[in-house]
Amino acid sequence: MSLSVGELLRINGLDLQLVAGSSGLSRPIRWVHVSELEDPTPWLKGGELLLTTGMGVGTTPARNRAYVARLTDAGLAGLGFGTGFSFRRAPKALVDAAERGGFPVFEVPYPVPFIAITEAVFTRLVAEQYDLLSRSLESEHTLTRAVLDGEGVDGIVRALARATQGWVVLLDLHGAPVAATPAAAEGYLPILQSELQSPRAEGLRFSLSVVERGQHIAIQPVAAQGRVEAFLAVGKKEALTQFDRIVSSHAVALLALELAKARAVSETERRLKGDVLDQILRGALAPEQARASLERLGFDLAQPFAVVALAGPEQPDSLAPVCEAVMGRRPGPFLASPRDDAVLLVFQPDRAGFLATLRAEVASRAGASVLAGAGALRPFQELGPGVREASYALQVCRTEGRPHAEFADLGTYQLLLSLQDPEALRTFANSVLAPLDRYDRAHGGDLLPSLRAFLERNARWESAAKELLVHRHTLRYRMRKVEELSGRNLSSARDRMEFFLALRARDMLASGESSPARPVGPSVQARRRPVGRSPMHKDAAKGIA
Fold first, then answer.
1. What's the pTM value of the predicted model, to 2 decimals?
2. What is the β-pairing status of strands 215-224 and 227-236?
3. Which carries the bigger pLDDT value, residue 499 or residue 310?
4. pLDDT at 200 (0 to 100)
């Protein structure tokens, strides 16, 4: 702690006598200044102990009181009044004003030189700074030892919490905790996440101070090579001291190195795992080589594998680390590989029904909407078909706006998806719908939208007409025109099935043609987000029965 006015008065040999402001004796002394000016405050910053012989305090009670008011308003620590020069005693009006304001005033006897007071204060301040430096270096060595001993990020956070005698939380860029000490510190996550999402934290480059729930909190970005890797929060009941900030700054530097190292290792592992997955899917590895590679990565080849394709508004290269962070908190090995428009995950789930939870966790950590498609559980020799199924399921999510889908639950889509060639889908759809296309173009008609609504509403005339905002007789006329042009009968379940599948095929083609695609694996096309989504309801298939 800094030297206070009360501690200065107790120093032996100075013989200083307090005459006013005993309630302010705890004020810390930042500096000592000597002035005989009537208003020295323009040359002061606050926290100073002012020494004067009284030449500028004035000779009237009003001027005495105004002098004290100026010093109090400027935030000075106190006033040392030298007697035996202009005044034998400190003026009564000055003393009374200082007492009312809780502003410490003490008399300095004539034999005591001001330099003695200055030396006493500066000696204490230098000792304080030396002690601060010594304690800071010792704590910095402790933090550095945690790194050298291989304790990593958790060790740095624990050492910082011990040094500051407070709590520490390290958050990733999505606001999720990376490390926290003590464990109860995670209770402050809502405060930290709220602050990081506030406008004043946007582009945060330096410390952000917060006082919430009786805690003084400092939040700092952890950056390496110009890239923010995480955020460090340090909190305690008392206001953070200069020591706390010095040690925290050293911790930030060490954390930046550790996180940059972890990112480099993670990216290298991701590339290696992605290479293994690519080689397996391309058939570049013989079965025994594939088996050995997967076993080295920790997979149990006697258990089935799951393949999940995930996509969001971010590019796959940005979404992949989020997926890895989520998978890293789960038991068991996994492979992650970013593709043209999705991230492929290969792992061995410990239970069924994992997809919804996995998608929700990735979406929460990414802070964005994420779609997920999963293939059926398969042995490792059938990862290729699993990738195709997961990619197909993801494509259906984009087409219908589902958050997640498993290939086994796609129903009639499985039939369409078995046509891996888009041209085959297009040919099939055109063979059924081309006459309707020509009529609509030539007459500005609405046969296709009307047919879609009719099938969506399970062939119920009233509800379909209501959706189209037309009379039911108008809809009946349009459906007769559909039958006339196509040569099919809408009362036939088989013909309704063909119409239904043709419309679905066009939905899938529309979802996949919004951008170029490159192969995701053998005979698999990975596609970016669709231009739009199909309005067809999942229960539309009832209309073909």
1. 0.48
2. antiparallel
3. 310
4. 63
Q: What pLDDT score was predicted for residue 23? A: 94
Helix 114-148 vs helix 152-164: crossing angle, to nearest 10: 160
Q: Is 318 helix (H, G, I), strand (E, B) or coil?
A: helix
- Structure-token match 């034999």, residue found: 111
DSSP per-residue codes, 487-509: ---TT-HHHHHHHHHHHHHHHHH
pLDDT tens-digit readout, 51-75? 999 999 999 999 999 999 999 999 9
Burial 326-365 (b: 16+ CB within 10 A, else e): bbeeeeebbbbbbbbbbbbbbbbbeeeebbeebbebbbeb
The pair of three-digit structure tokens given for residue 248, joined into one six-digit string: 């925290």
Mean pLDDT over 159-180 rounds to: 88
Q: Extract the tokens encoding 276.
A: 């293994």
* CA–CA gap between residue 308 and residue 379 (Å, rounded): 15
Rounded Cα distance, 59 and 55, in Å = 9
Question: What share of the chain in percent tops pLDDT 90?
Answer: 30
- What is the mean predicted confidence (pLDDT) over 364-387? 87
Q: What is the 3-state secondary structure (H, E, C) of 186-213?
A: HHHHHHHHHHHHCHHHCCCCCCEEEEEC
Can you list the domains of the chain with their CATH numbers? 5-112 (3.40.1390.20), 139-262 (3.30.450.40), 285-410 (3.30.70.270), 417-544 (1.10.10)
